[in-house]
Amino acid sequence: MFKHHLLLAFRNFKRYKVSFFINLFGLSTGLACALLIYFWVNDELNMDKFHAGSDRLYQVMISHNEDNGINVSDITPGPLGKALSDQIPGVEAAASTFRFLSDTKMNVAGNAIIKADGKAAGEHFFKIFSYPLVSGTKANVLRDKNTIAVSKNLALKLFGSTNVLGRQLNWKHGSMSTERHALISGVFQDIPGNSSDRFDYVIPLETLTEANPDSQGWGTYAHTTYLLLKKGADHKAVESQIRDFLVAKGEKKNKLFIRSYADGYLYGDYKDGKASGGRIEYVQLFSLIAVFILVIACINFMNLSTAQASRRLKEVGIKKVIGANRGTLFIQYMAESIILTLCSLAIAMLLVELILPQFNQITGKQLTRHVDQQLLWGIFLITSVTGLVSGSYPALYLSGLNPTAALKGRLNSSLGELWTRRSLVIFQFAISVILIVSVVVIYKQIDYVQKSNVGFKKDNLVHFEAEGRLKGNTNLFIEAAKQIPGVINAAGFRGSFIGSGFTSAWQGHNPEREVGFRVAGISIGAIETLGMEMVKGRSFSSQFGPDSNKVILNEAGAKALGFKNPIGKTFSMWDRNCQIIGVVKDFNFESMHQAVRPMFFWLESLNNSRVLIRIKAGAERETISELTAMYQKFNPGLKLEYKFMDEDYQSQYIAENRVSVLSKYFAGLAIVISCLGLFGLAAFTAERRLKEIGIRKILGASEMSVIVFLSKDFLKPVLISVFIALPVSYLLASRWLDSFAYRMELNLWYFAVAGMLSILISWLTVSMQAFKAARLNPIQCIKTN
């Protein structure tokens, strides 16, 4: 029976080549798209779930009441991990970690310096997280200070081997004044690709505490804390036990709660203290896109199969007369659909093989075609659903034809059947229009973000870490750099300017009112180098004596303090009185997803960790070349590794840029598949109406009137789809833009362009066939059987 169905399917594919190739192309590209998105979605959903106790692994979070609502943070006090481990019964193990914000320099016995990224962690870190150890034991690897655990890759870079237990290396972090020595106590496997936390080394938290005792104070928020709950422990009960844990430590405003560690990657956004989404929104978006593209391809199959039913009337009639029942015919036509889907799957797998490297480059992933049971089930499910969806309606339709009418060649299409076919076309093009609008809106919003005035001049602004001799001597380097012809200005700052900094809370005169401030240390000239606008007061300057206790607020900070005229006012922070000498215009130091937060600058003269240099436009290459030469005079053997500030700023929108690129491809694919289906329907309709076309032409109809006559029935559903899609796309675009605190206005032309583009493309598709039919000799048309 299978062989019989296979033979019939092959004959029909050969007989109706145009339909076959349209369906094959649509289903294969749709399946390829679905498989690529499946790989990506599967990787996203499994991020951080490889740890052995992932269902018991939690991260401690803090909710903090502020003037503008409840702020949620994952930054906790250093001693919290050990305290929770000792005092909360449901906690099996806990560890606090401190992430080093800049690269650490490492070397072995004076060899070449290697930069690495790492963290300090409590001794139970490798018990909580399942990072496999190549050598060393989880119980002892972080027990002793002045030891270090390194990744396999870092061990190979430093020693050329992973057999390095007990070997000594030298390391120095940017914030440290002297180099330290450490013995290697363990080597762990390189961090897998489905981990959101990437690092090259781990040192005991005790080492950090020894270097900086203040880091372990209950009032110092600089760590992240993780818990491994005991088997059977209720996480809700643990959460209730720790909620007010910080109250006894004098932190009355901070409440603790826990979230699953694996959920942090997908559900990382909070609004007024409640989870409000995150990357899961993009997972849902692309899952829907994959489904829609497959459905569009399936609709082509349905429409072409039912539209061409007249070609198979006698086949259906004869089979029914000789005893074939509806079930047998249904199986035959479903078999054709399944066989076509399997052929499409083979082509789709080949396409995935070819496209995956470029797809990885766009998404920033390292997706592989590793075959496992989950992948096989995923492919089976996608293929089966596609085959069943695409074949079910044609199979039911063809198998239900009346045998007598079929043998006579009569096919009376009901109004319901015609509207079903048109509804499917409407759905196809509505999805295409929505995708086109999405591409336009995402592109324009990213362009708006990148070109909008963020409050400082980010172009031609270079920054780099103060390493080696520059550490503690940044002022000397800055003054020398100013003498380079292409340098407009130069200054120093502490930490990372874009998207970070550290937070401090200010209670003011009312203990019930607390405001969170972003804080940054800068040198004299930094405000000018950044190109910020002073709206009140002055910048830091040596002309007014020491400015060590002076601060400069942004406008949001001045508003938060409640001072009508803030210049000269003082407030208390970190047990010292700070006097306000200036207010700068608000600027976006974080992503434009967030509104500008209160911030102030203080004068940092000695401990600036980075150098900021503004370069004259058009002289970038020569100036950087001279800066590199001067840097190497200060730091022989060290390479100048610089970044442009505008690149750092744009890096905050990596996810949006990837969505923009992928949406562009998916929208193009959707419109191509939809138009292919329309092309096939138009070709078949023109073929069926050749005699009518011939008679019309004999009676005097022009070629243009024939084209209009054949095109109008296809353009009607496209026009309806545009009117349906535009309001839907407006609602979706508005919802996405609401995630930005600063967003563009939705202009009418975005939607008009999408609508006109889909109408134009569909008209060109249909008119190609209509023009071809209109050009035929009317006598030949009339002679057609």
Strand and helix map with partners:
Blueprint: H1 2-15, H2 17-45, E1 57-66, E2 69-73, E3 76-77, H3 80-87, E4 91-99, E5 104-107, E6 114-116, E7 118-121, H4 125-128, E8 133-135, E9 147-151, H5 152-159, E10 168-173, E11 180-188, E12 201-204, H6 205-211, E13 221-229, H7 235-242, E14 254-260, H8 263-266, E15 269-271, E16 274-277, H9 280-307, H10 313-321, H11 326-363, H12 373-399, H13 403-407, H14 415-451, E17 461-465, H15 474-481, E18 487-493, E19 502-506, E20 515-522, H16 526-530, E21 534-537, E22 550-554, H17 555-561, E23 570-573, E24 576-584, E25 599-603, E26 610-615, H18 620-634, E27 642-644, H19 645-650, H20 654-688, H21 690-698, H22 703-737, H23 748-774, H24 778-783
Parallel strand pairs: 7-12, 9-11, 20-25, 22-24
Antiparallel strand pairs: 1-2, 1-13, 1-14, 3-13, 4-7, 4-13, 5-6, 5-10, 8-11, 9-12, 10-11, 15-16, 17-26, 17-27, 18-26, 19-20, 21-24, 22-25, 23-24
Describe this structure in words.
The chain has 785 residues and is of the alpha+beta class. The chain is built from 24 helices and 27 strands. Strands 1, 2, 3, 4, 5, 6, 7, 8, 9, 10, 11, 12, 13 and 14 form a 14-stranded mixed beta sheet that branches.
Key words describing this protein structure:
14-stranded mixed sheet, alpha+beta, single chain, 7-stranded mixed sheet
